[in-house]
Amino acid sequence: MRTHVTFHHCDKPVVEDVEAYWEKKLPRIEHLLQHYAPDAVELRLTVWHHHQRIGYQARAVLHLPSGTLVADETAKDLHAALDAAMDTLVQNLKKHEEHIRRDDVYRRHRGRRADVSAAGPILQRDLEQGRHDAFFQLMRPALRTLRRYAQREIRLLELEGLLAERDWSVSELMDALISLAWQRFSQRPKDVAMDVWLMDLLHELLADWTAQRAEQRAEDMVIPPASEGEEIEPVSYNEQLRLEELVPQSQPLPSWNALSASQQHEKLLQWLSKLPSRPRQAFLLHVLEDYQPSEIAVILRRSEDDIRKYIEQARQHLIHCLQLEGYVQITQGGNAAGSTGS
Known about the structure:
By secondary structure, the chain is of the alpha+beta class.
């Protein structure tokens, strides 16, 4: 397990005390993490000393492949703050592991909702106290699922010709998203889940980017090449789209199975890129990101009925493309791949 400790307004004796005391407490959580690869787990502790307030604040953030857990505790006594942070982190880890053992869907999708929701009150506190860096540090791991979605969506927008290849980096988009979240966090709708709100902001930024690109084309502007020595981050899109996830009722024929995984992925990506943006986004948010139509309606700012039509339109488009090229058979009742109920 990789560990990091950061201090704010702490003098040297406090730093030395924390480092020694925290080191003694680590075995308590290490034995719960034995089934994870050591380099796949990171524990970050941040300690603040509030001289004229309530003492010490200890924030422990545990990054796991299956999610991010947060404990944020405050006490007048330094050791009491560290003890409380470790107690809370251990409790949260045990609950997290129980969810994973009980529910495979949680492991694949719902972990992101628990991560972001749990971080909400702490992010609000960072905002109120003007702790910009702490807000960014906590927000970044919560965006892992959104980053994967953004990589896929940028690649599809490139295939559509709405974005030029390598004009935009995913890191640039994520930084813009966190900055926008910082600006609007206090105004976010309280009845909308945090991850839904963030996905809405992501789509707003993507719409702005494509609009800027359209203006550039209309004005016949040419984006200048990067200056010598300047690195342009590629999208690094390495996800493998799979037929069984997108159209689970399909029965692949030998012609489909003869294709390599990368060839299958490219065909699915190309077919998806032929869809209008809204049906494609609604479909992928539903089948790959596990959002329900009621949530997608908030993200895409359309009615729930429209979202259901979009999902079905995209599904039928993929089925048509697969059947047209003789790649699949569709099982009985194959006009609907799973429920789109809320």
